[in-house]
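Title: [Solved] ABC transporter substrate-binding protein 3D structure

Original question kept below for reference.
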Amino acid sequence: MDKLHRRTWGLAVASVLLAGVGAARAEFPEKPVTLVVPFAAGGPSDKIARDLAEALRKKLNQTVIVENVGGAGGTLGAAKVATASADGYTLLVHHIGFATAPTLYRKLPYKGIDDFAYLGLINEAPSTLIGRTTLPAKSFADLRKWIAADPTKVNLAHAGVGSASHLCGLMLQSALKTELTTVPYKGTGPAMTDLMGGTVDLMCEQATNAVPQIEGDKVRAFAVTSKERMKLPSLASLPTLAESGLPDFGVTVWHGLYAPKNTPAPVLAKLNEALRGALKDPELIKRQEALGITVVSDARVEPAAHKKFVEAEVMRWAKVIQAAGSYAD
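Solution (posted by the thread starter after getting help):
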């Protein structure tokens, strides 16, 4: 083979290889994508992830699997994604605990929020302050007086250290300037069961899980934790805690989507595009709104704005956790 032919052949091979690389990128995903939920099946985050998985499936034209990896307040599931292959096939759906873990836990099984690539914010949900139906208080004003009479006798349940109910409970105690007896559970399910059964007094729980119990008169609702009232017609009259005497109170439980650090930029772009499309899916929006949840449609669906938002949340919650002295090993 002469020099000219060798050069022509080499250029042809290079062109084929480059085309192959481009095709491989364009074909992502070539196999099922897994959404890791760092909490047990059946909980609020799990429900959200399953709705999102179906909407993403339509955009990616590929199966999207939800895998529950619970334990240690969500840090085990997060660690699994942080150490997974950076190829876009293993993603993390995590809530506000993603931003509180660096302060809440003395040792994390991963380095922190910089171990992830940010894909976009998914939603924001108010929590509700709910209580057993046999409580003597009918309103938040009555509840506040009842708590003040003897805080040591008031039991506040939560779904485990690092859970949304735990974090909201910390904020509530800080706002009330009162320390209550907290009762940790291994998940939202058993905590809610005991609240409905009257074993514990109060719980600060995501609307995702609380709305059906409120509407079924299985628990008593005192207020919502967001700055604005819920849009659900059945709960539109439920006041916010800010309206009820805690003017600076405002807690929403948000969820975001993440990939391992160093995931290739073209893959991240494809995933973000799919996420943005999924968040416009009418069925997803309908399911979320039925639970009082707002699907994010602002700039935070983009990676840079999502990361900036999370960094601000880290700073905000660090102050609350440090003031409460609430840490986990």
